[in-house]
Amino acid sequence: MDATDGPRILQLGVEDAAAGLALSTEARWNQTEDDWRIFLHDGVVFGIRDGARLVATAALLPYSGNNAWISMVLVTASHRRRGLATRLVDMCMEAARKRGLTSWLDATPDGAAVYGPLGFTPTLQLRRLRLVTSAQASLPAPSAATLEALCARDRRATGFDRTALLEAFAGRPGSRIVSANGAIALAREGRTAHHIGPLFADNAAAALSLVGAIAQSLGSPLLLDAIASHAAFLDGLTASGWTIERPFQRMRFGPATAAGAEMPFAVAGPEFG
Ligand SMILES: CC(C)(COP(=O)(O)OP(=O)(O)OC[C@H]1O[C@@H](n2cnc3c(N)ncnc32)[C@H](O)[C@@H]1OP(=O)(O)O)[C@@H](O)C(=O)NCCC(=O)NCCS
């Protein structure tokens, strides 16, 4: 299909946050209106309307070092399989190309079917896990850590400077940054569940113990997006009541950029990487 065929693609503004939230809520995603404001304010969000109703979106969020994250690729159920997601992701890729950015994304299985043909190639695997009832033994509450410590560890692990993003998360009511035994994590409120991530640790035992302590202090439901190659971490989570909901496939379009020096145990979310 030619880029000019089909419904017009618009660039959305912060005033579209509630309409974006309606789309992510339809898909049963966990984003809040505050999350949408990050994409609409700090990134570029493309959308398609049917009349006044927003029916499809895709976002490009630039990060440091010529990188960008593509996410919030959503098409309302009645408008799927018409090529809308393909056109919107194509717009994001074009915006990234113009700025010389390598694009990254964490794809759901449905999303991977769209991104593969566009030229994205798989990198690492993630698993979305959910905790509904905690089976943790009694653990001490984790102690508060600083935003600076989290940003420094995040920069080391991802290779991106995401101070602005982490500062925005940390500034929300209900967010906390905690650490114990060399592990550090951020937990924030989502639409239906608290989300834990990013989470960094020196080993799986420290990561599991920090997750356990967070679960005990926050209660459930909780979500986290673990890097699948941390097998002992995943095994420990499932043994303590977490269930694997779905896989995510990390994909990249563009030249490989500087790799991080440390693999996080859990990421900030598939929409943020
Ligand atoms: C994934 C999603 C965005 C696709 O939107 P869409 O507008 O239907 O996608 P397109 O029409 O551009 O599809 C392009 C191609 O991708 C493939 N594809 C799309 N959805 C697919 C699915 N559910 N299963 C298998 N292949 C699929 C097909 O090859 C399709 O081409 P075809 O229809 O000619 O066969 C939409 O299904 C959606 O919103 N799903 C829920 C949210 C989600 O998972 N988003 C992706 C996050 S990474």
- What CATH architecture of the largest domain do you see? 3-Layer(aba) Sandwich
Number of domains: 2
Helix content: 25-40%
CATH fold category name of the largest domain: Aminopeptidase
Beta strands, count: 12
Q: Span between N and C termini?
A: 30 Å
Radius of gyration equals 18 Å
In terms of per-residue confidence, which ranges show pLDDT below 50 for 5 or more consecutive residues? none
Query: In percent terms, what proportion of residues is strand?
Result: 25-35%
Query: Which structural class best describes the helix and strand composition?
Result: alpha+beta
Mean pLDDT reading? 94
Q: Ligands in the structure?
A: coenzyme A
Sheet bearing the most strands, described?
A: 12 strands, mixed
The coarse silhouette is: globular
Sequence of strands across the biggest β-sheet: 1-2-3-4-5-12-6-11-10-9-8-7
H and E order: EHHEEEHEHEEHHEEEHEHE
The number of helices is 8
Description:
With 273 residues, the protein is α+β, with helices and mostly antiparallel strands. The chain folds into 2 domains: 9-100, Aminopeptidase; 127-253, 3-Layer(aba) Sandwich (Aminopeptidase), CATH 3.40.630. The chain has 8 helices and 12 strands. Strands 1-2-3-4-5-12-6-11-10-9-8-7 form a 12-stranded mixed sheet, with helices on both faces. Helix 1 (17-26) packs across helix 2 (33-42). The model has no long low-confidence stretch (mean pLDDT 94). Residues 27, 73-75, 80-86, 107-108, 110-111, 113-114 line the site of coenzyme A.
Supply the key terms.
273 residues, alpha+beta, Aminopeptidase, 2 domains, twelve-stranded mixed beta sheet, binds coenzyme A
